[in-house]
Structure to design on (430 residues):
């Protein structure tokens, strides 16, 4: 199987080389990561030194921003449990690398970019790290990497594993390829019974799969006092009476819907204030122009900090990563981006941890279990389009009792489902 995979991979690379070259040349993110992920530059010296003794490090890998954030409580507890081992963390994207460096510097010895799934890339990076074992968070599963780990007798654990209905259908079509890959894992720690059932239907035996829950429920909540909330509002030029609606991790194509809905909200509720946090902060300029073209007084966070607070602003565009949690903490209503259009949605537990009433669209396929639990608990409401968004935001702005009740329901659910990290650690140590 691995030979056929590499033959097909070589053919694809040869055919796609011109397009790949253009993508690297014209994409700043790819230029930053390409040679590192190719394995040509190797890994940083301080990370390489972690493998110079007999006490081999632990290698944890997460695909991008969302997986890196969800991995924080796991990395933290690994550090407590394996006090004599170094912990190394890899990601596959530039933004993931940035956020991992910021969040994990206390608990890991270093972050690096995961190699492309070429034999020479994998062999060089894996040889320099030489881990005791590997933990892959949720996804990013590659044949050459798993084959190389198996050849080196290095255990690999797949944790917080999930199989969406779309992924499951696709994997069933190529089950002859996917089954050997999933069998390469020492254990698969699934989020839900449904995920475990789907792995079984792909031919993975029961003793390879354990339902441990979702580590996103174990994430730390950054304390945010009332004084800090007041100070943040002052820095944004906001009076305490203004109602803040935060749309987090938004995507292209849905932002026009959000801005249109806010235009209607603003007419009914003049004190409302809208914060848009694009999933890709590089798109902040485009979102700003779109917002201004709809007649709003808008500014980016960077410009606001440079020019000082302004009382006439009604929309703030966030052009950096790592502060969404803080914004949810001061929000009156939170909307989860990536859900009005089919992007799979984003993590709704971040605002739930701050007891905020939640809204999201119909496309939450990446968070099906969590979103359904929030709906069932009364901590969230689903909106199918901009019209429903306007209607339900209006209800919450008028009925503060209902908004507070939704926030408490979301918070109670968040606290009631912790424990996945402890389950996973017990499996790894066993």
């Amino acid at each position: 199987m691995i030979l056929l995979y590499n033959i097909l991979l070589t053919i694809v690379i040869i055919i796609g080389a011109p397009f790949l070259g253009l993508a690297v040349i014209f994409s700043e993110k790819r230029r930053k990561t390409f040679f590192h992920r190719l394995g040509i530059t190797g890994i940083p010296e301080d990370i390489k030194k972690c493998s110079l003794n007999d006490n081999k490090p632990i290698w944890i890998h997460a695909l991008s921003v969302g997986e890196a954030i969800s991995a924080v409580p796991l990395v933290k507890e690994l550090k407590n449990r394996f006090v004599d081992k170094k912990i190394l963390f890899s990601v596959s994207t530039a933004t993931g690398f940035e956020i991992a460096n910021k969040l994990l510097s206390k608990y890991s010895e270093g972050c690096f970019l995961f190699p492309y799934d070429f034999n020479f890339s994998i062999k060089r990076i894996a040889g320099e790290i030489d881990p005791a074992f590997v933990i892959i968070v949720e996804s990013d599963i590659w044949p050459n990497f798993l084959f190389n780990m198996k050849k080196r007798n290095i255990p690999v654990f797949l944790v917080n594993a999930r199989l969406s209905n779309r992924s499951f259908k696709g994997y069933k079509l190529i089950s002859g390829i996917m089954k050997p890959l999933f069998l390469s894992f020492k254990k698969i720690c699934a989020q839900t019974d449904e995920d475990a059932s789907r792995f079984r239907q792909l031919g993975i035996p029961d003793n390879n799969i354990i339902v441990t829950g979702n580590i996103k429920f174990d994430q730390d909540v950054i304390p945010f006092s009332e004084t800090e909330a007041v100070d943040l509002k002052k820095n944004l030029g906001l009076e305490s009476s203004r109602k803040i609606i935060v749309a987090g991790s938004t995507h292209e194509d849905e932002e026009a819907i959000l801005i249109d809905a806010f235009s209607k909200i603003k007419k009914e509720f003049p004190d409302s204030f809208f914060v848009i946090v694009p999933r890709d902060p590089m798109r902040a300029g485009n979102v700003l122009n779109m917002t201004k073209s709809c007649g709003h007084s808008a500014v980016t966070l960077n410009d606001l900090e440079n020019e000082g607070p302004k009382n006439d602003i009604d929309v703030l565009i966030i052009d950096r990563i790592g502060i969404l949690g803080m914004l949810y903490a001061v929000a009156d209503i939170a909307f989860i981006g990536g859900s009005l259009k089919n992007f799979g949605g984003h993590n709704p537990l971040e605002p739930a941890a701050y007891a905020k009433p939640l809204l999201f669209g119909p496309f939450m396929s990446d968070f099906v279990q969590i979103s359904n639990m929030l709906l069932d608990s009364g901590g969230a409401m689903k909106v199918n389009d901009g019209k429903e968004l306007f209607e339900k935001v209006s209800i919450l702005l008028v009925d503060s009792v209902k908004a507070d009740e939704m926030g408490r329901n979301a918070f109670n659910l968040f606290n009631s489902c912790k424990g996945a990290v402890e389950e996973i650690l017990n499996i790894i140590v066993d």
User: Anything to note?
Assistant: The first helix runs from residue 2 to 26. The radius of gyration is 23 Å. The chain has two domains: 51-218+418-429, 226-416. Residues 226-416 form a domain with the Rossmann fold fold (CATH 3.40.50.2000).
